[in-house]
């Protein structure tokens, strides 16, 4: 006669097997061939949302109807084949409505005394929070990569010997290259310098000097797709660690072709951001009140490089470095006087000792277990070597990204200031008409430079506080106009915080610059006094920007897109901002621009 499988009795807490299964940090269940639950430990019940007792005798479809379609075929496969299934990722809704969970599961057959499959053992680790955190990290990395790839700059990251590690998208697209065409190669051997041996030698020499800590900056030319070439303001900056050693080189280039023609184009940005997540296996050891090892699992064997029979009966201090052993008896006695479970959040980080004498960092959780033989302690030991290494790598990458973005915006701001100075010098020898055109270009360059200055100062590279930007810009415009003796007052009213990303902040800044500058130039002819008002507020349709004056008003024959260059730019900038423009005529002129902000600027 075939006998059934032997099951732990959950009503008898004094059996050692029941104690171990109940204290495991993973979910454990035993099911019969009809997929009815015969045993469930507390960890699995916590994950499913159903009390252990409410599982017993119930089928999988009854207890977990939302997850059963994913789990049942796997269990049936084990029953039919008699072969285990391990490393399965299953997902489904727990007994709590809308509470979707994910598990890493191992399913193994249980056989009776005749070797026939008489049930199933399911070991399930709830990985919902871990996978959600991993997805969030991947999304964060995707967003950061998107920000860098959409910045108008040529940026890379090199090792000190000049090997390319990363490069952002604009220079690749401009030259018709792929990332694999350049990563892993020496910078001067990439396709950007394919038509210029002299430039290759110059880049190689600059790399050697930058590796010694010297900032390199000069103008050069890049080879682009279709045999085109473009001139860039090239910088190769060393990146130092806390000890002053050069760890990386940051090449950056700004297209100066337009600058030579009178206007500037800016390019900068790059980052290297890596994340490694690894799950270390857990070890379990049960000890008595004197610290004698009663039970270990395979995880302990793998972790400490001992065989099971080498540990059973020995004191747990054999797994501790020498420096912990003197204090351990007192700590053990204190724990036994007031035993209490310590969850993962309260676990103390220690170092453990392998059989070969090497140490490794661990987290240890202690769970008291009462038995007829006295108090027992189940220790859960987690090797956190990889986790600590991953944490250090993430912290290094975050610091590297922050330093890189700060360098990008600081250098963009400085380069724009250089352009502004060049325009000012050029205007000294220009005609009156040219001088006015150069002054307008200089004002636009300053408006863009102010955006990068704010990003650099606030250390927030994802968005620009438009209210703060308006205060700075209006003060700058007012100071500029007062130098020319304009008897016009400029008033600013910012009622709400409004934020924009860099891609929309630049056209927004240029739009405000054009509207205010045009008001100064055209609304008050012949030295007429007046008032210009700039307002920013949030309404039901989004952000509302108003630039108005009490001047002579617009001529009736001027519509959007007509008139001076500045007035022609206004509808183009509104379109880049993704907004709507309305012009109100009457006692003066009011330009009303509505657009959608990105979020709270605070």
TrEMBL record:
Sorted UniProt keywords: ATP-binding, Kinase, Nucleotide-binding, Phosphoprotein, Transferase, Two-component regulatory system
Stretches assigned to the Histidine kinase domain: 407-599
Domain of life: Bacteria
Domain PAC: 83-139, 216-268, 346-396
Domain PAS: residue ranges: 13-82, 140-214, 269-322
Keyword Magnesium carried by entry: no
This protein's name: Histidine kinase
Species, as recorded: Chitiniphilus shinanonensis
């Amino acid at each position: 006669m075939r006998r059934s499988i032997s099951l732990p009795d959950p009503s008898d807490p004094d059996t050692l097997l029941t104690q171990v299964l109940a204290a495991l940090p993973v979910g454990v269940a035993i099911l019969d061939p009809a997929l009815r639950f015969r045993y469930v430990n507390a960890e699995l019940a916590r994950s499913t949302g159903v009390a252990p007792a409410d599982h017993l005798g119930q089928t999988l479809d009854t207890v977990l109807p939302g997850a059963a379609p994913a789990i049942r075929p796997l269990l049936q496969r084990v029953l039919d084949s008699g072969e285990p299934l391990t490393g399965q990722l299953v997902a489904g809704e727990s007994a709590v409505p809308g509470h979707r969970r994910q598990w890493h599961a191992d399913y193994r057959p249980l056989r009776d005394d005749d070797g026939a499959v008489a049930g199933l053992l399911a070991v399930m680790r709830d990985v919902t929070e871990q996978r959600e955190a991993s997805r969030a990290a991947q999304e964060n990395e995707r967003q950061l990569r998107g920000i860098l790839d959409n910045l108008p700059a040529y940026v890379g990251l090199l090792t000190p010997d000049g090997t390319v590690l990363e490069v952002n998208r604009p220079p690749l697209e401009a030259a018709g290259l792929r990332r694999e065409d350049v990563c892993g190669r020496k910078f001067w051997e990439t396709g950007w310098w394919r038509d210029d041996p002299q430039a290759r030698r110059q880049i190689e020499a600059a790399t050697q000097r930058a590796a010694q800590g010297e900032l390199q900056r000069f103008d050069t030319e890049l080879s682009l797709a279709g045999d085109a070439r473009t001139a860039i303001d090239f910088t190769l900056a060393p990146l130092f660690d806390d000890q002053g050693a050069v760890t990386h080189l940051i090449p950056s280039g700004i297209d100066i072709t337009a600058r030579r023609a009178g206007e500037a184009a800016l390019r900068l940005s790059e980052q290297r951001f890596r994340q490694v997540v690894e799950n270390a296996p857990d070890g379990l050891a049960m000890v008595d009140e004197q610290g004698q090892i009663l039970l270990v699992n395979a995880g302990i064997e793998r972790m400490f490089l001992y065989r099971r029979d080498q540990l059973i009966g020995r004191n747990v201090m054999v797994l501790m470095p020498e420096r912990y052993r003197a204090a351990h008896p007192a700590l053990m006695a204190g724990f036994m006087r007031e035993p209490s479970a310590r969850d993962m959040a309260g676990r103390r980080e220690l170092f453990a000792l392998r059989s070969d004498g090497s140490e490794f960092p661990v987290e240890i959780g202690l769970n008291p277990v009462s038995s007829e033989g006295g108090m027992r302690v189940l220790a859960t030991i987690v090797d956190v070597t990889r986790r600590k290494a991953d944490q250090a790598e993430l912290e290094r990458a975050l610091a590297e990204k922050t330093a890189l973005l700060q360098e990008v915006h600081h250098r963009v701001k400085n380069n724009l200031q250089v352009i502004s100075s060049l325009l000012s010098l050029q205007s000294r020898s220009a005609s009156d008409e040219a001088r006015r055109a150069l002054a307008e270009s200089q004002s636009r360059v300053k408006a863009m430079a102010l955006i990068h200055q704010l990003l650099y100062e606030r250390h927030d590279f994802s968005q620009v506080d438009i209210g703060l930007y308006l205060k700075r810009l209006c003060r700058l415009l007012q100071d500029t106009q007062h130098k020319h003796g304009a008897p016009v007052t400029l008033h600013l009213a910012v009622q709400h915080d409004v934020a924009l990303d860099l891609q929309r902040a630049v056209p927004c800044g240029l739009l405000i610059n054009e509207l205010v500058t045009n008001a100064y130039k055209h609304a008050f002819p012949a030295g007429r006094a007046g008032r210009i008002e700039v307002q920013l507020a949030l309404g039901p349709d989004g952000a509302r920007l108003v630039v108005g004056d009490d001047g002579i008003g617009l001529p009736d024959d001027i519509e959007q897109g007509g008139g001076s260059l500045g007035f022609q730019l206004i509808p183009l900038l509104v379109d880049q901002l993704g907004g709507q423009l309305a012009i109100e005529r009457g006692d003066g002129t009011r330009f009303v621009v509505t657009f959608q902000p990105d979020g709270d600027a605070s």
